[in-house]
Structures are given as structure tokens and as C-alpha cells.
């Protein structure tokens, strides 16, 4: 079972210390709910985990013992996907956006097949040819999830995935997150709306003043036996 | 007034009759300026990208330097390279003075700061999430860079057109470094200056019209592409 563990994570922007020795671990299929006020450092921590933001210092264990973040950066970038609060859509259609996440070595037929599977998975068949920059917030979130899913990551870092979405869009996003979890993808979901994610979260971490101030076992309602390898699911 | 109208009519005649001298001058202008732009564009865009995305000591100074270089007159560039390339200069052994190569060098020096400054502005205007999204989706740094360039292609194209506009119409560097040699280093601006000083207005007007046409096409293209890249509501 794969896992990553961060220890003694420090990050400051100027004189402002955002993270002061934060530790977090994630294992396959685990969903960690990250809560905290605005500016608490939720996004920064997620970006550090995803290998996008350089911490001032951090020790990272990806199964081979603790090493510096710099030494593990390639692993983090290869295995984690970070989703912005407002996902960025590349210039092009929804299908082209999905294609971006696929390895360029795939044949055209294989690419088309995988894109079609992702479109079906996220319920995006009707807007496959729409210009991605003009779709609604809820659709954008689902495209971002499908695009990330096509990358076959082990870990997903989601920053306020249901922020500013209507109830229907929130429900559909949550359904996709449940699906990701049962496929064994570990997730860190940063959100103000903790209640909404309790059903999928195994653990809730509250980030305050640069530290994890509370660690609560939440207990997801999803049974662990549902975990199936992601590759098998994508081939379906 | 009659003299002016006659010169204008003759200018149109020269243009549309395919006057060999006139079109060779236009050809030299296009060749030298295009070559200068082609050589400068890739390193300039790379530098613009580095200045936008990398953090290093002296970055702000380099940005200010290129913004300052934007306003350096062409004749000062010409003088600088004349001193470098002249027989007594440090690069005199290369024997490049009064050649098209010297003109290309001068024009590279002219368009490089413009490409860097405008390219930097274009990269700065890019959505920061674009780079992160590309990288987190597994793109290599090169592919992520190409993705960003695609996102800001209208801004980069504007930089390219503006730079071409500057070099095709400059006279100072071309005159000093090229020497205005017929069929070799005489380009549109140096030919206009020479013909006007001789009182031969027809060729000057014809070449002026060509420059105007270039300016019109470049500006229309710029306007069209900038319109394409408009902000989405």
C-alpha cells in the first residue's frame, strides 16, 4: 500500500509564517479533510504536497524513508495532482483539455477511447466539443476532476472543490470524489464546508496558526472493500 | 504642388510597373529585418519567460534595463556597433562593417529589448494557474512553456509585429552599419533619405507608401489578433 508522509513542514512568506512544523500522512484510498480559516495555509500545504511550492524545509517519506522535499519533488510531481479552487481550462474544447493529461505516446485510438471513458465518468458527453473557457463553474470542476483522473494519480489535492457551486453541482462533484476514493486515490480536500465532505473523509485536520490544531477521525461511510485499482477502472 | 502630384503619380508608376531598383530595395529591407527578427525572437522569448517565472537576484534590475533599452535611439545603437565593428574596433577583424550582416546585428540589438519587454508583459499577463495546471498534469517544463505560449499567443504576436515595425522603419543603425550601398545594403528608410536629399521624390514617396502599407498591415493584424485574445466574461 502506497503512502506519503510529510513531517516538519515549514513555510513563510516574508515575515509571515504560514506553516510551522506541520505533519501530514496519506495512504492509498484515504480522504483527509483539511479545514481552517482563510490564510491558514491549506492551499500552501496542498501545493507543497503536490510538488508545486517549495517549502522552507520539509521531510518527506514516500516509502523509502524521510528525505528532503527537494529530493522527493519528482515523485510528488509524478504522483500527485493539485486542483485549483477555480480550475484553469486550457484554450480548446473540453475533450482537448482532457487529452492534455494523457501520455503523448498513446495511439490516437487509445486517446479517443480514454477521453470517451472520462467524459462518461464525469457526465460531460454533451459538452465534449464546447470551448472549455466558457463552461459553467460546476462543469469546469468536473472537467478538472476528469482531467486529473486521466492522469492516474495516486494522490489528489483538491482546493475548495465545491466553492461557489450550486447544490446540484456540489452533489455531482461529491459523487465524483466518492468514485475517486473507491478507486484507491488518496485525497486531501481543503474546504470551509466540512459537513459536506464528512461522508467521504477518514480524517479531519484543522490548520490554525501554522500548525495542525485538531486531528479528528471522521470515519467515512464508504467501505474499504470498494477499493479497486485505478487502472482497472479506467480500462472498463 | 504640381511637382508633388507628378512625383506621387510617378511613385505609383514605379510601384506598379515593377521597377527593379525599387523592389530590390524593398527586398533587402524585408530580408534584413526578417532575419534579425528570426534570430532574436527565440532567445528574447526565453529570456522574457525566465524574467517572468524565475526568481533570482537582479531580476528587477534586468527588467528595468530592458525597459530602458526600449527607448535607446537607433542611431545610438548604430554608433555603438559602428565603433565595435570599425577597423580599429574590437570586432574590426570580422570585416562586417557596411555589410548586410552588420545591419542584421544592429537590428537584432534594436528589436531584442522590445521582444523581451513586450514578451515579459505578455507572460506576466498569463494566468499563473496555467503553468501549475500544466505541470501537475504531467507536462515537462518545455511542454508547459509551449502551453503558456499558446495561451498568450496574441500578446507574443503583438510583440513580434511591434518589433518588426521598429526594425523595418529604422534608419540610424542601417545607415551607419550598412553604408547605404545600392543593391547591397540600401533598404527602404536609407533609400528614402538619400532620394529625398537628391530631390528625387518619386522613389522616396513610393518607398514611403510601402512603409505605410507595412505599418497598416501590421497594425491591422495586431488589432485583429488582440481582438481574438480578448478577455472572456
Keyphrases for this structure?
heterodimer, A: 236 residues, alpha/beta, Rossmann fold, six-stranded mixed beta sheet, four-stranded antiparallel beta sheet, 8 helices, 34% helix, disordered C terminus, B: 233 residues, mainly alpha, MetI-like fold, 0% strand, globular
Could you please describe the fold and organization of this structure?
The complex is a heterodimer of chains A (236) and B (233). By secondary structure, chain A is α/β, with parallel strands linked by helices. Chain A has a single domain, classed as Rossmann fold (3-Layer(aba) Sandwich). Chain A has 8 helices and 10 strands. In chain A, helix 3 runs parallel beside helix 5 and helix 5 packs parallel to helix 6. Chain A is globular. The C terminus of chain A is likely disordered. Chain B has 233 residues and is mostly helical. Chain B has one domain: MetI-like fold, CATH 1.10.3720.10. Chain B has 11 helices and no strands. Chain B starts with a helix and ends in a 5-residue tail after the last helix. The interface between A and B is medium-sized, with 22 and 15 residues.
Topology:
The complex is a heterodimer of chains A (236) and B (233).
Chain A: E1 3-13, E2 16-27, E3 31-35, H1 42-49, E4 57-61, E5 66-68, H2 69-79, E6 80-83, H3 94-100, H4 108-122, H5 137-150, E7 155-159, H6 167-182, E8 186-190, H7 194-197, E9 203-208, E10 211-217, H8 230-235
Helix pairs in contact in A: 3-5, 4-5, 5-6
Chain B: H1 2-16, H2 20-53, H3 59-69, H4 74-85, H5 100-125, H6 128-136, H7 141-151, H8 153-169, H9 172-178, H10 188-198, H11 201-228
